[in-house]
Amino acid sequence: MLQNREPQITNNIDWVTLMLYLACVMMGWLNVYAAVYSPENQTSLFDLQTNAGKQLMWIGTTVILIICILVINHRFWDTFAFIIYGLTILSLLLVLVAGTNINGSRSWFKFGPMSLQPAEFAKLATGLALARYIDYPGVNLSKLKDQLWCAAIIGLPPLLIIASRETGQALVFASFIIMLYREGLPGIYPLIGIIVVALFILTLIVPKLILFAAIAALTIGAFFLLPRYQRSVQNVLAISISGLLMIGVVAGVDFFVNDVLQKHQQNRIKVLVNPNIDPLGAGWNVTQAKIAIGSGRLMGKGFLEGTQTKFDFVPEQSTDFIFCTIGEEHGFIGSLVVVTLFMALLIRIVLLAEKQRTRFARVYGYCVAGIFFFHVLINIGMTIGLMPVIGIPLPFFSYGGSSLWSFSLLLFIFLKLDSRRSSMFSRV
Hints:
By secondary structure, the protein is mainly alpha-helical. It has helices at 15-36, 51-71, 75-79, 81-98, 118-134, 144-163, 167-171, 176-182, 188-205, 208-225, 233-260, 263-273, 284-295, 322-355, 359-383, 401-419; strands at 100-102, 105-111, 114-116. It folds into two domains: 15-185 and 281-423, no CATH class; 206-261. The chain has a three-stranded antiparallel sheet with strand order 1-2-3, covered by helices on one side. The model has no long low-confidence stretch (mean pLDDT 87).
C-alpha cells in the first residue's frame, strides 16, 4: 500500500547523494571557467558571454527542475513512463526534420540562444519505460518474449539518434545491459557482447589468418574438453555454430569499418589502435589531451594556470575534453579526487537501488547507475587514449544545458522514488 500524503520536500532525501551531486556540479562549473579563462581579458566567472557564465544560468534552471521533481508526486513517473517515452521518440523524429545541424549532427533544437538535444533525454525516457515494463507482474527476463520487448524499448531511440549522426549518444544505450543482467537476463548475452567487442579489437591489431586459426583451435579444443556423456549432436552443433559465428564477426569487421562507419569514425578507430598513426591530424585530439593531463604531473599547475587548455591546444576543452583541464591544473591528485567522487556516487546509487521496495524504483536506479558509469568510463577513457573519441559529456562537469538537465533529472527522479521507500510495502 502507498500513503496518499506526500512528505515535505526535503523529507527522506538521501543527503549523501545530494552532497556528492553538489560537489560534482560546483567542481564542474569551476573547471568550465578554467577551460575558457583568458589571462589577457581577465574573464569573469559570472560573464554571461562565456561558457562559465552560461553554465551558471543552466545550473540555476536546473535548481528549478529539481524542485519540480521533488514536489511532483512520485507515482507520476511510473504512471506516465510510456507517455514520456513516446513523446521522446516523437522529439527524436522531429529533430531529424526540424533540427539544427551542429558539427555535422542534426540532433539539436535551437530556440534563439538556447539549444536542446533530445538524445540526452532519451536515456531518461528509456530508463523509465524499461522500469515500467519490467515492473509488470509476470515479466521474467529469462523468457524470450520479455527479452525482445526490452530490446525493442532500448533499440528504437539509438536507431533514431544514429539517423541524426550522433553515434556517441547512441552507444550509451548499451549501458542498460547492466540493469538487465541484474534483473535476471541470462549471462550468455553479456558474454556474447564481450566476445564480440574483444574479437572486433583483436581483428584490428592481429592478422585475420592467426585469428581464424585460433578460433578453429578453440572450437576443436572445446569439443574434446567435453566429457564423453555430453558429446551429443546438440552440443557439438552449438560449439560448431559458435565457432562459425566468431569467424563471421572477424570476417565482417573490415566491411563494418570501411563501409558502415563514416570517415572520421574510421580515423578514431585507427587512432585508438595506433595513437601515433597521424599525430597532427586524426590523432591530434588524443595526443593533445594526453599532453595536457601528463603536464599536470602530481599536483597540477594550479587553478587557472593550465596552458594547453588556455591556448586551445586541447579541442572542446569545456565539453567533451573537460577532464584535460582537471588533469592539467590539478594533476594526478585532482584527477583521483574526481574519479573517487564519481565512484562514491555510483556506489551510493547502487546501494540505494538495492534497498528499494518496488521493482520499478530498483530497475530505474540501476538504469541511472549504468548510464553514469558508461559516461564516466568512456569520457575519461577517451581523454587518456584508452577509448575511442565518441563525443559524450562527463556528467555534471562538461559544459552544456542539455547534459546537465538530463543527468540531474535522471538522478533526482531516483532520489524522489527513494524518498518514498519507507512508506511502501515490498513489491520486489
